[in-house]
Specification:
By secondary structure, this protein is an alpha/beta fold. It has 9 helices and 8 strands. The strands form 2 sheets. It has a 6-stranded parallel β-sheet with strand order 3-2-1-4-5-6, sandwiched between helices. A two-stranded parallel ribbon has the order 7-8. This is SDR family oxidoreductase.
Length: 265
């Protein structure tokens, strides 16, 4: 798929994978809708994308503010007349033991990582159906396949996201709608710094594996290529995570032993 002049809406566009995807889609000639909570950061990203010449709409909002979703969709349609790609990247991670984690943290994490995405997708499906075309790009995680210690809520939310979009893909195939679910491994972003601890506060520490992870720009290139090729599901990350997925699929009885050996970082 050629993304030139396509309308690509990216949530969580102010940092990390979302920011890198903004630059990559801009380089492909796409017109961008950039969303996140921090308008100043979105403006920074938009300015960096302007050199590629595409149109830009900065649309700040909080994904968990469900009451505004219909309004945000209408704003995009008013600006561009259509939506070609919706990248669902907004989310938060977690670092805390199951027993120590306050129950409200589980609820909050699911509100951000799962329910807010489901709700926005429900608003966009009629647009895609009317167009008889559209691409959902949920940014899930390897944790949705392999949930490691101290990430139970995060892994569960990403597992739910993968399952939800498996159904979306099957239900909407006849409408020309594509779902490309992305499974990032360790990407060099600040996701662990902003992760929730057991009290719902910022964890504030860099995960050592994250610090050594794949360059977000390289990850974005691979993701955009996978979406262009119509991949249903695509892993992007390093050899360690790839090996884990391999073991999970071909020798699942070994996986519990491997997970017990992981250091609690």
């Amino acid at each position: 798929m050629d993304f030139k002049n396509k309308i690509v809406w990216i949530t969580g566009a102010s940092s990390g994978i979302g920011e890198a995807l903004s630059y990559e889609y801009a380089s492909k000639g796409a017109n961008l809708v950039l969303s996140a909570r921090r308008e100043a950061e979105l403006q920074r990203v938009a300015q960096a994308c302007e050199s590629h010449g595409g149109s830009m709409l900065v649309l700040p909002f909080d994904m968990v503010d469900l009451a505004t979703h219909a309004q945000q969709v209408e704003a995009v349609i008013q600006a561009f007349g259509r939506i070609d790609v919706l990248v669902l990247n907004a989310g938060v991670s977690q670092r805390s033991f199951v027993l120590d984690t306050q129950f409200d943290v589980y609820r909050r994490l699911f509100e951000i990582n799962f329910f807010s995405i489901v709700h926005l997708v429900q608003q966009v499906i009629p647009v895609f159906q009317k167009q008889q075309a559209g691409i959902f790009v949920p940014i899930a995680s390897v944790a949705g396949r392999i949930s490691t210690p101290r990430r139970a809520a995060y892994g569960a939310s990403k597992h739910a996201l993968i399952g939800f979009f498996d159904s979306v893909r099957a239900e909407l195939h006849g409408h020309g709608i594509q779902v490309s679910t992305i499974l990032p491994g360790y990407i060099r972003t600040e996701i662990s710094l902003h992760a929730m601890n057991e009290h719902g506060e910022k964890y504030g520490k860099m995960d050592p594996n994250q610090a050594k992870g794949l360059d977000p720009a390289v990850a974005a290139q691979k993701i955009v290529e996978a979406v262009s090729e119509g991949k249903n599901e695509f892993f992007v990350g390093g050899a360690l995570e790839r090996f884990g997925l391999f073991v999970k699929q071909l020798a699942p009885s070994i996986m519990p032993w491997m997970l017990r050996k992981i250091k609690n970082t």
